[in-house]
Amino acid sequence: MNSTSPIAIIGAGIAGLSCATALQHAGLNVCVFDKSRGPSGRMSTRRGTGDGDAAWQCDHGAQYFTAQDPGFRQEVARWCEAGVAALWTPKLWAPPLEILNGERESSAAPKQRFVGLPRMTAPANFLVEPLALTTQCTIKALQRDADSWRLLSAENGLSGASFGAVLLAIPAPQAAPLFAEILPSFAAIGANTKMRGSWTLMLQYAAALPLALPFDAAFVSALDPDNILGWIARDSSKPGRTGLESWVLQATPEWSEAHIEDDINSVAATLLTAFGQLGGRHPQSWTAHRWRYADTESSPQLGSAWNAESGVGMCGDWLNGGKVEGAWLSGQHLARQVLASI
Ligand SMILES: Cc1cc2nc3c(=O)[nH]c(=O)nc-3n(C[C@H](O)[C@H](O)[C@H](O)COP(=O)(O)OP(=O)(O)OC[C@H]3O[C@@H](n4cnc5c(N)ncnc54)[C@H](O)[C@@H]3O)c2cc1C
User: Which of 292, 288, 316, 285 is nearest to 302 (CA)?
Assistant: First the structure.
């Protein structure tokens, strides 16, 4: 690794931002690139206007995050203090003893659920403030240039700048092809990690007609294994939310995978019918989103991967058990590996 040149981090989701923040704090020069119009990746919020041009918003990726690790707890406390995250205490429909993703939660000691404030993108926007971020820059290839790297992007062609190291903080199926020609062992880790899709429907209700349901959120398929809805939530019940009443419906990973190529209208109709069976009224309007890589079926649990000789690495939720917490910790893990090799 050439430690005098800046480090490029591809992906401004929570893993990339966590890694970039740690490296910058250690005195390194980092440049972050993302293909989207802003940071935050799957910690995302959709905004729009509904009936009579009234505004609505809805978190359509990560719904909340938990913080078990002491380091992440400290980070979340920092976000809360900065006003970009807060506890969410929904009226929750869940089995009395949840067994979700292998984690047990007793009703005696309920899990603390945090959300971005006033929307799920807020922590990423907070983290990115002191960082150099280039958006709308889709990295298509990494090119070796003597002892450093240049980036080929769809929008800007080959970068003028050279980088001492390149760290990919993107989902496994997107990381694998970028490493194919460079480091086949890393490409194989990505290619062997299966990520699953998620069909998500955002519902908007007229301000005068909020939905009368006895809960704010429900782990539907955990209560009824035959139900195609995995999770539903009243987004408006989260702290700091304004605008029209809005709900999010997420199909289970199994149903989503089986129907990932289906027509958007037929998916919406099926999810709305399932919601109706739970007492959910038809909305004034809806918006659907298909996530191709929502979660990881089985994580390699490496924390992150770093090759000091080539100066390339990767981090992300999929390398560290999934979820927002796993992604943030993966970014820290990679930063420690990079710093240890300088
Ligand atoms: C529907 C859904 C529900 C979820 N629910 C929860 C939940 O309730 N709790 C929880 O903890 N987690 C949840 N998650 C998972 C959580 O969102 C992720 O674990 C976490 O946000 C992943 O962060 P990351 O930084 O690893 O990846 P990402 O957030 O995916 O960030 C990767 C970034 O890389 C960019 N990128 C990709 N390819 C390129 C390229 N070639 N060039 C440039 N940029 C690129 C993308 O635009 C993106 O911004 C959910 C996810 C989804 C989709």
Answer: 316
